[in-house]
Write a structure and sequence with these properties.
Order of helices and strands: HEEEEEEEEEEEEEH
Strand content: over 45%
Helix content: 10-25%
Structural class: mainly beta
Shape: elongated
Distance between the termini: 31 Å
Number of strands: 13
Length: 197
């Protein structure tokens, strides 16, 4: 994806529900230095507000205001006397759908302070996406990873209580696109891949 805005929209879109209904959550790091206070996104501006810690002591509150289209950002600090170079910082996106059949997470997006410009020079990629294909009495768990051209598949089995659980046996196959608008068709395609692999 070329922009953070495109990544955000991709994370919002649930392939099972076929609409932008996944809730995107922002997390920050490194954990030793940043603790999230809150975040908000309005149109193309993402505000991330954190407490900055040094040696387990809160030093100041910092806010990153990021333009998700241009990748320019502004850093605001309550303690103006602290140099910006002290702030190694990254954030990432996670999203889950209420249908419980699709989740996604991005890779870490690092913000590096540059002298003349405040610009994010990162690739905006998905780290992992988990899809659950369930119909009738059968189902499959598909894990897609952006750094591989493969997918990991495991079969879902019904437990004694009636819920679905992962059988724990993972098989790796070449990546293929599925038509998630037709779950039966997608399961049939997946079973064919498994049969002939």
């Amino acid at each position: 994806m070329d922009t953070l805005q495109q990544l955000w929209e991709y994370c919002q879109f649930c392939p099972i529900c076929q609409k932008p209904c996944r809730d995107v959550v922002v997390s920050v790091g490194p954990d030793d230095n940043f603790r999230m206070i809150d975040y908000s996104k309005q149109d193309n501006l993402l505000h991330i507000r954190c407490d900055y810690y040094f040696e387990d002591t809160a030093q100041t509150e910092v806010t990153y205001i990021i333009n998700c289209d241009t990748h320019k950002y502004e850093l605001q600090m309550l303690d103006e006397g602290m140099p910006e170079t002290q702030f190694p910082f990254y954030f990432y996106l996670n999203a889950n759908c209420d249908c419980n059949n699709a989740s996604i997470s991005s890779i870490d997006i690092e913000i590096k302070w540059a002298e003349a410009t405040c610009q994010i020079y990162e690739r905006f990629l998905i780290d992992q996406e988990d899809i659950y294909l369930i119909t009738g009495q059968e189902g499959y768990h598909i894990t897609l990873r952006s750094n591989q051209s493969r997918m990991v598949v495991s079969k879902l089995i019904f437990s004694r209580t009636g819920g679905l659980i992962d059988d724990g046996v993972e098989q790796t196959y070449p990546f293929v696109n599925f038509d998630y608008t037709d779950i039966d068709k997608s399961i049939h395609k997946l079973k064919t891949i498994i049969l002939f692999s």
